[in-house]
Amino acid sequence: MSAWLCVLAVLLDTALGEPRRGHPLVVFGGWATALERRWNRRPDRSVGAGFKATLLLVGGPVLVAVFCQWWLPPLLLWPLQVLVLWLAMAPRSLHEHALAVARPLSAGDLPAARAAVGQLVSRDTNALDETGVATAATESVLENGADAVFASLFWFLLAGLPGVVAHRAANTLDAMWGYRTERYEYFGKTAARLDDLLNWVPARLTALSYALCGRTRLALSCWRRQAGQWSSPNAGPVMAAGAGALGVSLGGGAPYHGQWRQRPVLGAGPVAEAATIKASLRLLRRALGLWLLVAVTGSVLLSVGSP
């Protein structure tokens, strides 16, 4: 049944996109912000406070999800699962945000493209040229596909409602606190490590999916040779395989928090451009279709084989 609920959640996202108002993750983010301001009083000694905040903000929703999973009747549980999975994923939103970068970039409107890509990435976008904007947007599609789409599907299929809630809560906290800055270096450490742990398997399945849906041999080669050079243990495989699947070069230098950071080059081929962003969206759609096909096929085979 879980596979069909995944299909329904994806169809719901395709039809409606993200809620414009009252998104639970916005409320959750408000709680996280308030708690961080209250508990992160000593940024140089805040590992313990960050651990307690992460435990509270992840553990609380997970306990509620466990209760619902065990005690709600199926006729109530199934719609709730579809609703939560829809809210946890964001393929249509990611598609819309990426197109909002690709369209002005194709038209030569670099300022508009910079403004749009600023909604997707944490790096400084004002100094990016056309290649930098296209690279940032393409990397965001590949990485957010792993974090916001495939990891949610993986944890839902593996652990149901508690799994997807745990992953989405941890991933949201990592997005808010997982920075190596003076304020978050210690407070965000627990959230960052938990997010790394929960994304380890989904990231590699995503990388494999990108490879199977693109230039397979090149993608696997880039994954094997380049992933370990990236600072993130999960983004490395995803972006190396994704860049190889697209046949482009990503990574390289980029500005972060007022400093220029030289990153390894991932993939192989020409540099990114507006068309690359659209190609990454097509790759994401093919990979999502592959996941749903495998999940539904497995569900059918299990149901046929069961007594």
UniProtKB/TrEMBL annotation:
GO MF annotations in UniProt: ABC-type vitamin B12 transporter activity; threonine-phosphate decarboxylase activity
HAMAP family: CobD_CbiB
Family named by the database record: Belongs to the CobD/CbiB family.
GO CC terms: plasma membrane
Keyword GTP-binding appears in the UniProt entry: no
Subcellular location: Cell membrane
Membrane topology annotation: Multi-pass membrane protein
Keywords: Cell membrane, Cobalamin biosynthesis, Membrane, Transmembrane, Transmembrane helix
Entry's transmembrane regions: 49-68, 148-166, 287-305
Protein name: Cobalamin biosynthesis protein CobD
Source organism of this protein record: Alloalcanivorax xenomutans
Function of the molecule: Converts cobyric acid to cobinamide by the addition of aminopropanol on the F carboxylic group.
Pathway: Cofactor biosynthesis; adenosylcobalamin biosynthesis
A Pfam family assignment: CobD_Cbib
One GO term of the biological process aspect: cobalamin biosynthetic process
